[in-house]
Amino acid sequence: MTARRWIAGVAIVAALAGSAVLVALAPDNDGITAPFFIRGGLGDTVSGRNLTAVVNSVELADYLDIKYNDAGDTSTDGVWVVLDTVLTARRDTVVVGDAQLWIGDVHYGVSDILPAPTSLQLSYGPDVPQHGSLVFEIPLSALKGPGASQASIVLYDKVDARLDSVPVVVVDLTGLDVKPRVRIDERTVVDQ
Amino acid sequence: MKWLRRNLAALLVIVLAIPVLAFVLVGVPLLDRPAPPVVTVKEGDTIKAGGYSFTVTASQEFPGTGTGPGTNSIPKGSSLVGVLVDAEPIVGPIPDDNYCDVELTSRAGGDDRTWRAVSSPSDFAYAIGDDRTTICLLDDQEKFELEQVFLVPSGVYESATLDLVVGSTTYRFEVPRE
User: Fold this and answer.
1) Distance from B150 to chain A by nearest Cα, in Å?
2) CA nearest B83: which of B50, B105, B112, B64?
3) Of B66, B67, B151, Cβ closest to residue A128
4) Of A91, A125, A192, which is closest to B152 when you measure between CB atoms?
5) CA distance A43 to chain B (A)
6) Which chain A residue lies closest to B77 (C-alpha atoms)?
7) Interface pTM (ipTM) of the complex?
8) Do B75 and A92 touch (CB under 8 A)?
9) Among partner residues B66, B75, B114, which is closest to A125 by beta-carbon distance?
10) Using omega within 30 degrees of 0 as the cis cutoff, is the peptide bond preceding A117 cis?
């Protein structure tokens, strides 16, 4: 066998090995089209393409004391996670009805228990900031699980967020007292 | 020259394949989804669509002084913008959905932004005029005057246009300002 053939053989094997490494390292199909998560903490202004979010505070409660409308019995066998937020649409109206609270690998959907109008609908349009509450109903055991200290509020503004940017606010749910009730006021447009 | 003769066919395939592949990947999806037509309408002009003629007759901005006692109940930093549209029936096809959609739009600063009409103007101490409507229904074949109210950030009014969507066509009106 000539040296030239040896070189060709080694080159082919090297190319195959390189290809195998690339295939192993390449993201899967979901990874290729995953959203871009823009992360921040409590009080931070976190902006995606369609939405800017500030989460001012997090509270835990057994009951939602809704002051602006009748929502019936809001007691829970679990616990309410209540977020005080300022949300601002950036281009058009936005609905955050698909927002989620991630604790570890478990994803909880935002509750629709609050009567309209709520912060789930940024119905006026862009650059009109709205102050209000978002609530999640979770089991008490979730607060003791791994990941509760680094829970993520993922503010999806549409069902299909592939390749779009999504604001994410990381909060610590451990060490918070569970209050008997938390007051919920109607959403308001923020004076600027 | 010998190398070129041996590889000419392969080179030709590459030269042809790359533009064809680019067209299939980029051009075909764009051709499949043409942008909906936008018709620009000068201030005071009338358009005919959906069995009606439409004219934007007036608009007014109400800058916010804040909410609470002693204010106009419009948040500071925002403005309420009211727009009037005259609609008169004409002979012509009415779209299947019998409805027109109205949005306030702005392209200032290179950003396309869209505001939807406020569903409850009374929340901002604004009253819709008598004999006017906030719903653009096109099935009665009767004259009507549409009054739409938008809550927008300060500064938007100067660059705002009114988009009236009838069927698949958007009519972009220049807004008459007082």
Assistant:
1) 7
2) B105
3) B151
4) A125
5) 21
6) A192
7) 0.84
8) no
9) B114
10) yes
Question: Mapping DSSP to helix (H, G, I), strand (E, B) and coil, where does residue A160 land?
Answer: coil
CA distance B85 to B91: 19
Residue A189 — φ and ψ, nearest 5°? -80, 135
Cα–Cα distance measured from residue B177 to residue B175, given in angstroms and rounded to the nearest whole number: 6
In CATH, the number for domain B38-174 is 2.60.40.1240
A 89-108 residues inside an 8 A Cβ radius of B: 90-93
CA distances from B46 to B86, B163, B171 (A): 9, 13, 10
Class for the domain spanning A35-189? mainly beta
Residue A40 neighbours by CB under 8 Å, 6+ apart: A46, A167, A168, A169, A170
Indicate the domain borders of chain A: 1-32, 35-189
Two structure tokens written together for B133: 């409507």
In contact, A145 and A78? CB cutoff 8 Å? no
Contact B65, B72 (CB under 8 A): yes
Q: DSSP string spanning B69-128?
A: TTS-SB-TTEEEEEEEEEEEE-SSPPPTT-BEEEEEEE-GGG--EEEEPPS-GGGGT--P
Alpha-carbon distance of A117 to A81, in angstroms, equals 19
What's the whole-model pTM score?
0.85
Q: Answer whether B116 sits within 8 Å of A93, measured CB to CB.
A: yes
| Tokens, residue A159 | 């069902």
Residue B162 near residue B57, CB atoms below 8 Å: no
Task: Give residue-wise pLDDT tens across range B48-91.
Answer: 998 899 999 999 999 999 998 999 999 999 999 999 999 999 98
Angle at A105 (CA atoms; ends A104, A111), nearest 5 degrees: 85
Contacts of A51 in chain B (CB under 8 A): none
Per-residue pLDDT tens for A35-46? 999 999 999 999
The residue written with tokens 């003791």 in the block is A144
